[in-house]
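Case study 2.
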Amino acid sequence: MSGTGPKRSVDEITGGRRLRRMRKADWARRLVRETRLGVDDLIWPIFIMEGEDTAEAIGAMPGVERLTLDRAVAAAEEAHKLGIPAIATFANIPMDRKDQTGSHALDADNIINRVTAAIKQAVPGIGIITDPALDPFTDHGHDGVLRDGIIVNDETVDIIARAAVKQADAGADIIAPSDMMDGRIGAIRDALDAAGHQDVAIMSYTAKFASACYGPYREAIGTGGLLKGDKKTYYVDPANTDEALREAEQDLVEGADMLMVKPALPYLDVCWRIKTELRAPVYAYQVSGEYAMIEAAAANGWIDGERVMMEKLAAFKRAGCDGILTYFAPRVARILNR
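Prediction:
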């Protein structure tokens, strides 16, 4: 038989519900947009190093540089003018200051603390986030004390808590420990409170996954060639979401004010679960590998880098994130301010 019966109109098929109506023009799309990205959502991670008036390019992260103290202050001034609420600092420590226990993290005048104090004096209106994890300071590249091939949890927590106090003394507004040791949030909270830093907040790297996306970052802080073994004994397995949620619940109990998921894009489901189930402030870290992939593809003309950059940041907001740590922050802020 050749006949197919009466042909229904589109209105009969859809019941008159034409979803394209509000997509027909830019003004219409803006009226119904569900997710909005703003400058207030941005945190800018910067890399710092010893020296004066110098910026060193990072090969695996085009457009990102290591900055000396004076250049870091200038970067903070730029961020503040753009309306970026906060910056996060990560240090490249000289090899002669690294050791097995990361002891230089406890020096009040290390580069992290000196940069914090300088920025706080020059740009008091911007938030400063610091990380007391030991990987920049250890000669083996791990986030904690390495003994007989094992990252020793409790000794590491003690050092990290003391380093957090030094960072708060220097003027850090938020301590963001990335080490994933058990009990470090509670230990840091106790140490900060005992030192009179009750107003210093904690942003926990609550779900930091054992990801393959950290390579360019390790080049940036000078730990890439040092790492012995891997970090799977303390970072979260990429296959697990319930475990990440348990980490988040524990961190809140111990005193975390904010929770971070790292990396960002492969773990949008984790961001969403933490936000919807725990109702706590959630942040995503768009890590170095995510940044490098966009930049490399854009440099080869395979993608529109700016559009992909903005699309991915919107995805983090759509997944429930309250903010995003991204190396794109100044570029994005200029676009949004435009």
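The CA atoms of residues 226 and 242 lie 32 Å apart.
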